[in-house]
Hints:
three-stranded antiparallel sheet, 3 domains, single chain
Amino acid sequence: MTNTSALTALPPYASISKSRLSSLYSDVSRQKRSNPSSYGAHVDWWQNTLELLSSHGWIETSPADIHPTASSQSSKLILTVQRSLVDKLRVEGIGKPLGLGSTIVELCRQKALIPCSHFLTSQQSIYDAGWLPWRLASFVIGKPLWWALEQLDIVRSEDSYSEAEVWKRIEGDYVLLHLAEEVADAVLQLQKSREASLGDRLYTTESFRTQFASRALPGVQLSDQDIRVLLRFLERERRQVVVDNDLVKFLSAGEKATISPVDKGILELKAAVGRLHAQVDSIQVQVDGAAEKASAALRLQRKPFALAQLKHKKHLHDLLLKRLGALENLESTLVRVEGAAGDIEIMKLYESSTKTLQEILSHPSLEREKIDETMDALAASNAEAREVDDAIRMGEDIVTEGYDIADADIEAELNALVKDAEHEREIEREKTVLQALERGVPTAPPESAKEIKVRAVAVPY
Length: 461
């Protein structure tokens, strides 16, 4: 696979057009002031690209060796910056990335890249505002004075350095901070899922590497140097582990960052149990091998050799039983020690809880006299509230009675109006009947003309 075809097949390159890639490979350092948004997008793309290439181990391998599973010997969290990096990133038809050195300088300024030597030795967290190990002079003496010194040629502006001079200044190993954060988060999550006792929080550097080197990132094997960076980040930035020479301890909430003699004793027991497990497995393989050799010798009628193998198997079996007995004793001892250590932590929690409860109970508000005073005041307040409620209820009853009298008067007046309306309708109906009789129009049968006439005479006009 050629350099160009292998490189352009990777996600950062495969997802963009050739014209866009050509723009990203151009020198845009002078756009930092004239077009900051475009310059920022340019720097972000290169940051993501360098992180991906480094995490898959390609930068430390030859261009033709790009493959999904990188060598375990190459560092994934550390970027080696040197002029040859430009040649490795060359794309046919586009060329080499111009201005990559200036982009790396900007990534250092943003703390996306941190010099490895400073990262491993600094006692101050890289997240502290004043951490920058190289401390740019422009921020120390002030930009106006720095500009004046530039005009007098006492100092040189950043843009005045050639690309070769920039590369000479920045060559070295750099920690990829974003990758370190990602790996640290993954390790803490893995540790949280397996932690059950104090012993599960204790590791040697080797057992830590065995446990997490191939599991922190999918398809990635961390190198020994990556493990050093990871442990330093977890200890200084995250404050989740404490490292003492070859010993590593994950800290529980509120625990002091120290490794006690109890921790060391438990770790020694764990190491002894691990060694015995390895011995038992090895002896078991030898026992099985001796049995197979004896069987094969018997099939070939080689009885003396078969007998020797059976005797060897017997000795190995006796040794296996001894090792199994020792392993059982050590494992039971380890369980008891971890249980006792857990009891200590539980008692500390009990003690802390007791102190908290005592502090709460000692509050002046919980004294007996204060409680009686408060309850008496509450009872008096409730009594006053009941009196107010009774007074309001009595007032409502009085108001309601007045409204009842008024309602009766209104109802009587309403009934009178209804009767008057019915009387008027009856008169109108009788007038209509009389008019119909006068015109000779038949009317309703129930009443005779005589009856209607009599009623009509009785109606006052």
